[in-house]
Prior knowledge:
Oligomer: single chain
Strand order of the largest sheet: 1-2
Bound molecules: geranylgeranyl diphosphate
Largest sheet: 2 strands, antiparallel
Helix content: over 70%
Low-confidence stretches: none
Mean pLDDT: 95
Strand content: under 5%
Amino acid sequence: MTPTLDELRAAIDAELEGWLSETLRGTGPIAEPIRYAVLAKGKRIRPLLFVGAWEAAGGVRGPIPGNGASALHRMALGPELVHTYSLVHDDLPCMDDDDLRRGRPTVHVRYGERAAVMTGAALLPLAIRAVAEGAAGLGLPDPVAGRLIGILTAAAGSGGMVGGQLLDLLAEKKRVSFEALARIHLGKTARLIAACCTMGGVAARAPEETVDRLTRFGIAIGLAFQTVDDILDVTGSSSRMGKIGGRDEALGKATTPSILGLEGARVRAEQFGREALGEIAPLADPDRLREIGRLVLDRDR
Ligand code: GRG
């Protein structure tokens, strides 16, 4: 039986909880803020996309020989841990300076700035470890494991999330063209989301043409994701989102609604969504990815 999306999210949450308990045992005071950051109620879009891409690429459902389905879920933790690190650092006073995240005080508010910087720093190596362990559990050859780690770290680093975040900060209170905004969104959000999809295809040992399709799907759905995020920052409910709305305007950030208006931004998000779904239509089993794509477009948190 194919698990529902909620069941899959619950399995990923269980893997996160179990693995962190085991991995952080004996690590001292860093364990508490790490658990606080990671085990807060995130939507887990990135690990879901990874598993969805793996299924779409023909990865076999059900228990994986040797290590059970958890080897796949272990690898899925990699992008989620990179993402959580980015949230912890993004919330710092020297970045976007936010007090609320995932419905509770941000890590620096709860544990102090120094612990928050260390928490983010600790999450990155944990992410790489999760991918390496997942690859071993799936019985993937070392060069494939190396490729998977390369995909994740490239998306997280200077050519992806970190580079995009700096562009985003430098653009505050400036007039930004739509093209420049697209570069910021690609770097700070879409490359990591695309990496989840690429990794799903590579872990499933899919043909390169399929991996490329999944990457293009991921870029388009990542751009849709950030566009919806910008819209929700204007229209969303803070209690529903678990973070304070209206921050983009307060910080003078260029966003899709600030350039195209709310309606224009909605049209743009739908265009990205259609582009994304078109990419995966020819794949063997795209239903789960389609469902996650709709979730990205229709979300209210
Ligand atoms: C300080 C070394 C250093 C690096 C900074 C902070 C950072 C790198 C990058 C930030 C990138 C960032 C936060 C982009 C925004 C992406 C985004 C829309 C996040 C919200 O994701 P959701 O909605 O959150 O999936 P949940 O809580 O559901 O997981």
